[in-house]
TrEMBL record, chain A:
It comes from the Bacteria. It comes from Guopingia tenuis. Coiled coil: none annotated. This is 4Fe-4S dicluster domain-containing protein. GO terms for molecular function: iron-sulfur cluster binding; metal ion binding. Transmembrane segments: none annotated.
From TrEMBL, chain B:
It comes from Guopingia tenuis. One of its GO terms (molecular function) is iron-sulfur cluster binding. Keywords: Iron, Iron-sulfur, Metal-binding. This is 4Fe-4S dicluster domain-containing protein. It comes from the Bacteria.
TrEMBL record, chain C:
This is Hydrogenase iron-sulfur subunit. One of its GO terms (molecular function) is oxidoreductase activity. Keywords: Iron, Iron-sulfur, Metal-binding, Oxidoreductase. InterPro entries: MvhD/FlpD (IPR003813). It comes from the Bacteria. Residues 12-134 form the F420-non-reducing hydrogenase iron-sulfur subunit D domain. Pfam families: FlpD. The keyword Membrane does not apply.
Amino acid sequence: MLKLPIAKLDEFFAAIAAKETLYLPVDNEGGQAQYKEWKEGVSLSRALNTVRSAKDFFFPQTENLMEFKTQGKAIEVIDSRKESEDFVIFGVRACDARSFTILDKVFLVDPVDTYYKTRREHGTIISLACTRPEETCFCPLFGIDATEPEGDMRGWMTEDALYLEPVTEKGTALAQALGDLLEDADAAPVEEQKENTKKILEKLPFSKLDMEEFNGDNLLKLFDSPKWAGLSEACLGCGTCTFVCPTCQCYDIRDFNTGHGIQRFRCWDSCMYSDFTRMAHGNPRLTQLERFRQRFMHKLVYFPSNNDGEYGCVGCGRCLSKCPISMNIVKVIKTLGEDK
Amino acid sequence: MQREMIERAKALLADGTVNRVIGWKAGEFDYDITPAVFTTAEELDAGFLYNDLCAANLSKYLIKESRKEGKILAFLKPCDTYSFSQLLKEHRIWRDHVYVIGVPCEGKVDVDTVKSKGITGICSMRCDGETVRVETLYGEESIKKDEAMADRCLNCKSKKHVVYDELMGEEGDVLDSHRFDMVEKLENMTPDERFAFWRGELSRCIRCNACRNVCPACTCEKCVFDNDASGIAQKAAVDSFEENMFHIIRAFHVAGRCTDCGECSRVCPQNIPLHLLNRKFIKDIDELYGEYQAGADPDTKPPLNTFTQEDAEPSVIYERGGNK
Amino acid sequence: MQVNNSEFKPKIVAFCCNWCSYAGADLAGTNRLNYPADVKIIRVPCSCRVNPMFILRAFQRGADGVILCGCHPGDCHYTTGNYYTRRRMTLLFSMLDYLGIEKERTRVEWVSAAEGAKFAATMNDFVETVTKLGENKRLEDLRCKEK
């Protein structure tokens, strides 16, 4: 266990930023946290989590894939990729840290998404244990320990110190590079913090939901449930839940005519949108009911069926606090779970 | 009030006046309330809710609901009746398929505002007169109600119901509000300051389209932003131009029709004060073409669908307002 | 924003209504009145045809200034089109100003078919104004800039 006195936090950030770009949660104009690049004078947000998840770093909302230029009958294809540089993300919570393993299962299986892979290789994650979970948190439901987050290096922030523990090679390398700044320390304060946090985690209202119903064997039964109508009736068809979700990974590929060429880019897509997977005949999911059902069936049934039972949700609670009509995955689990 | 509303709804269901009721449904906590349609007395008993946390404007749902078989009972707050009336004017709601009961509103508590005061882990929330009592994972807290309300309620424009078949509680009045104060403050800034302000706000946009989809004035069958050929992809926040374009056009398309219900700002996951764009149009319309409140009067012409020969020239904006 | 770049030649898009302003531009041409070649005219059936999105997209595509010309109020070929234009554009320009975008980059001018001289003078004046402002930065789309 390594230790950094809280007074040296800025020094610590500066030391990392001197080597590679450092991102951390910062309070924004909207009074909420968002990841921003660390620069002198930027201070770490005290909020539990950011509105946008950390998936942006590996799977950004929009990204240019390539460009086309035409000259006569010749088409020139230009790779828009820039040389990737190493970067560090500080302050990733346990839920977001787990989301990367879920995204890996999508992007790093054959065919490997090289855009994603490159960024994964260049990124070092310093996660931070939670101490004040929100009522909307339910990560324990998915076997995530908020007091012991995954990541290349994990951290615990107490009132007077930041405790760090390298987990992977990348994490160890980073710790070594920081040298004298970090000192060896006794893990007792960390254990104490974990105990306290666990008491709160115990009290979380949704951390023990019954998930038995949600497996591939029940696929058709769940798909045909008459309850989807009631659940989806107020859905606005916006993309809030999808865009704040750390595990939603659908994207669209589009071409933009720049006037001097064509830019091909990909951008996040939402199954809640009316033009999601639109084909010549229109959207195969005709009404909001089917679109709504798709999102939750994917996370709770299809994804675990294809990935050894791992759900496509990490219980971060963003959709619970952000849905304009307060309809969310917990309400879906509760409502459909009753039908055992 | 809630009890009375449920009883009245049951009676109207029982005598066949209506076959459905649209209202608010309780969630897991006191604040996560979902708009819902109820069809039986049992459903009403089980989940129907009306209190100081029921913020959603139900009028937009009536576009679809009114096209269904039979009549639907809708409980509308003063704000919602303005939207409802505006939708009637635009022939978007079938009036004879809706039975409107106006219900009073004392201003809605906004959970994001409460959270912004540093209260976290909110498990339950109750209004006790002018105090909001909050139970959290970390103990009990309380906050004054006017510190727990969003701007739209603090600067409420009217407690009057402009359309209804029946009214519960007492009828309120149109209020003198300070709703244009912030617009004025922005107008008095220099263009550079304004530009910096809006960049700071709009750059957070994630293009989730919640503001558009919740807006009772945005009712096009197909939105211009869903058109691939519009030169702006609905799902990509590619650069600052698209953010500006989306928000200018979104606000422009509802100019003269926006009732200032504030739903856009309520639903924005990034807390962008979108109502300030709409209010700018309202303020300009008031100043240039005479006071106009969308939804207030079914017979007046919307300001952008009419004109006078004496209208100001566009050059008027070079001369007016703030620092040049 | 003052730019001391004498090289800078702004790109101007001028939407001209078919009945008055476009004919006015024609007259300016036949009378050999000078106005900068950087003014690109787009003919529209009526000034009222111009959707606010047209204006924004002109900026997106690289315009530094956008001017909209129509018949004088009262003279619209379709009787009332330009009255609606007048209200719409007033509100749009005011909104652009509200967002901190230089209001001088947008303008509405009424030019009749007989006003070739006014057309040329208007364009000269507008080009001069926009040249002083410099390149459009606040409503630009970086993807559309030629690298």
